[in-house]
Amino acid sequence: MDNLFLKYMRERTGRKKSPEGPTFESPGPVITISREYGCPGRRIARQLAETLTQKNKARGNNREWRWISKEIIEESARELKLSPSLMQDLSEYKERSFFENLALFFSDEYYPSDVKIKNTIAKFIYNASVEGNVVIVGRAAEAITKNFVNSLHIKLKAPLEWRARKVADAQGMTIQEARREALEMDHRRAAFRNYFEKERPDIDYFDIFYNCATLSDEEIIESIVILAESRGFVV
User: Fold this and answer.
1) For 39, which of 112, 136, 156, 221 could close a Cys bridge (C-beta 3.0–4.6 Å)?
2) Burial of 201 from C-beta contacts in 10 A (0-12 / 13-18 / 19+)
3) In the chain, what percentage of residues exceed pLDDT 90?
4) Closest to 202 (Cα-Cα) out of 155, 150, 146
C-alpha cells in the first residue's frame, strides 16, 4: 500500500511547475509553511526539519535541514538597526497609523519605511531559500519563493473555535479573548502577505492545505515528507 501511494504521489507531484515569470531551476529545496493563528507552524517545521535530516543521513547525505521563523525578524531587524520595541511590533505584524509614524518621525528612534522593512525580510528569505534545505515559517515565504522549482508550499488551517481553544490554553485567555486575538492576528498576517501576493487567492501560492483540527502533527509531517521525497528533496 505504501509503495502504491508513493508511486501515486510521484506521478501527481513529479511534474515541473510552470508559473508566470522566471523560474529558478537549481536553488532550494525549500518548504514554506504558512498558518492561521493557533495552528502549530513552528512545532511542525522543527519536527519536519529533523525528520528530513534523518532521511538524508540514512541515505548517506549529511547535509542537514534547518527551519527558520523568528530568525527572519531578528536578522532583518539587525540589518535595519531597529530598536527592541520596533522589532516587537514587526514580529507581531503591526503596522503604524499616520499619527504613530508622525511621532516616530519627530523622535530619536530610527524607523525605516514599511516597504524597506518588507523588502529586507524578502531578501533574507530569498537568500535562505537559494541556499536550500530549509523550512521557512510565515512571512509570505510562499510568495517570495513561488517561482522556485524546488519548492513546496504548505498552509495549516483549522476552524476558529479550535484555534481559539488552543490560544486560550497556551496564553491563559478566555475563549472570547482568544477568538478576538486569532481574528486580529489572521488579519495582520493577511495584510503583510498581501504586500507580496496582491490579494490573489491562496490556491495561487499553496500546494497543499492541512486541517490541524482533524490531523495530528505526525500525520501532517509524514504526508509532507512523502511529498518532499517524491520531489527529490531527500537524496
Assistant:
1) 156
2) exposed
3) 49
4) 155
Q: Which of 39-48, 72-81, 144-153, 202-211 has the lowest mean pLDDT?
A: 72-81
Q: Which stretch of 38-52, 105-119, 122-136 has the lowest confidence by average pLDDT?
A: 105-119
Q: What is the 3-state secondary structure (H, E, C) of 24-63?
A: ECCCCCEEEEEECCCCCHHHHHHHHHHHHHHHHHHCCCCC
Query: Residues, the chain, total?
Result: 235
Question: pLDDT for 157-209, tens place per residue?
Answer: 999 999 999 999 999 999 999 999 999 999 988 888 888 888 888 888 999 99
Spatial separation of the C-alpha atoms in residues 46 and 221, rounded to whole Å: 10
- By CB atoms closer than 10 A (0-12, 13-18, 19+), residue 60 is exposed
